[in-house]
């Protein structure tokens, strides 16, 4: 049986490079402890914008909020791109499967995305969050359903469902139908109810 590490750490908001250093540090520590799969939280690079409102009100935006949005955009990740290459190099250096939440930017839109890397450092693929929750929709676009992969790996069939997606029965059913065995659920939710949800899903999906 392989060891799995679930990282609970804080990124540096608006600072992609420093956050990638944190990823490297925690990956090194987890790998040294024998982990073969390392999971980071939702939107870890470069941060889930908890508490930020980007100056948005119905019918208006503040100048300060626009500046915050630009900083968030500037710290987001191009896929493919240099930050993806760095993450792949981290996975390869420590010979681990790496599953990590990033803020992906593409064609003027940001997405809450999970990236999957194998122990050779190759990007296996990605999943874009289908339904941003509440105020997340101020800054994140909707995934179109074309990126809902389950990967065959040496550890088993690996996939991810992001945060509130886990409360979408059809999404869970789809993943079960793909034969998922290692069900990753990166989130920014720190409530006790999340633990109960994960137990239920583990029993429901036998994963």
Automatic annotation (TrEMBL):
<dbReference type="InterPro" id="IPR044149">
    <property type="entry name" value="Nitrilases_CHs"/>
</dbReference>
<comment type="similarity">
    <text>Belongs to the carbon-nitrogen hydrolase superfamily. Nitrilase family.</text>
</comment>
<feature type="domain" description="CN hydrolase">
    <location>
        <begin position="2"/>
        <end position="207"/>
    </location>
</feature>
<dbReference type="InterPro" id="IPR000132">
    <property type="entry name" value="Nitrilase/CN_hydratase_CS"/>
</dbReference>
<dbReference type="Pfam" id="PF00795">
    <property type="entry name" value="CN_hydrolase"/>
</dbReference>
<protein>
    <recommendedName>
        <fullName>CN hydrolase domain-containing protein</fullName>
    </recommendedName>
</protein>
<dbReference type="InterPro" id="IPR003010">
    <property type="entry name" value="C-N_Hydrolase"/>
</dbReference>
<dbReference type="InterPro" id="IPR036526">
    <property type="entry name" value="C-N_Hydrolase_sf"/>
</dbReference>
<dbReference type="GO" id="GO:0000257">
    <property type="term" value="F:nitrilase activity"/>
</dbReference>
